[in-house]
Amino acid sequence: MQKKAVLFDLDGVLVTTDDCHYRAWKQMADEEHIPFTRTDNERLRGVSRMASLEIVLEKAARAYSEEEKLALAERKNRYYVQLIRKLTDAAILPGARETVIRLREAGVLTAVASSSKNARLILTQVGLIDLFDAIIDGTQITKSKPDPEVVLKAAELRHKKPQDCIVVEDADAGIAAAKSAGMYAVAVGNAHGGDLHYSGLDSVDLLKLAVGKETK
């Protein structure tokens, strides 16, 4: 049986930058006198930067012009980049490195399919950049999840049909993107709607799924 390609979301699957995102959004929101909590931050999982900004601005006391929104998003990103430049391999989630290495040793194609425009920087900072056959990030797409563009591009880059791909996601939007693309979806963490669900990469044997020995 033909081996499947495994497409990983980045944040929440391979690494955790939740605190960096929260602190960057919080700093920007505080400067604009917009209430923003960690609960609010949960709504931003798997959502593009501009779509996230719209969620943040739901609590704003005034309307913002498109030019102002772009400036706010850029400001948040500056704060975020400052934070992720300090990341180390301590940000890698349990089982992530071992899982990817095991897949590669078995000849399974691996890719990152992330809406983040900082995906390559994050992967470089934590030392995972060389473990993937392809990386599709927010700089290469025009539509964010739940649109399937990012996973379809990752599959296309590796010459794989959608049905020959397994997507690993921690956000509902990512699971929706995978299912919309006709791909097998493995949900981890708080994501819902996947074909299988696990707490994290340290509790799922992706190699069995990738080589056609699916177990539940």
Describe this structure in words.
The protein is an alpha/beta fold. 40% of the residues lie in helices and 11% in strands. A 6-stranded parallel beta sheet has the order 3-2-1-4-5-6. The longest helix has 19 residues. The mean pLDDT is 93.
- Broad shape: globular
Order of helices and strands: EHHHHHEHEHEHEEH
Total of DSSP H or I helical runs spanning 4+ residues: 9
The count of β-strands is 6
Strand content: 5-15%
Helical content stands at: 40-55%
| Mean of residue pLDDT values | 93
Q: Rg, please? A: 17 Å
Structural class of the secondary elements? alpha/beta
User: Largest sheet, described in full?
Assistant: 6 strands, parallel
Report the span from N to C terminus. Answer: 19 Å
Enumerate the strands of the largest sheet in spatial order, edge to edge or round the barrel: 3-2-1-4-5-6
Uncertain segments are none
Question: Any descriptors?
Answer:
9 helices; alpha/beta; globular; single chain; about 220 residues; six-stranded parallel beta sheet
What's the structural blueprint in terms of helices and strands?
Blueprint: E1 5-8, H1 18-31, H2 38-42, H3 49-56, H4 66-84, H5 96-105, E2 110-113, H6 119-126, E3 134-136, H7 149-157, E4 165-169, H8 172-180, E5 184-188, E6 196-198, H9 206-210
Parallel strand pairs: 1-2, 1-4, 2-3, 4-5, 5-6
Helix pairs in contact: 1-4, 3-4
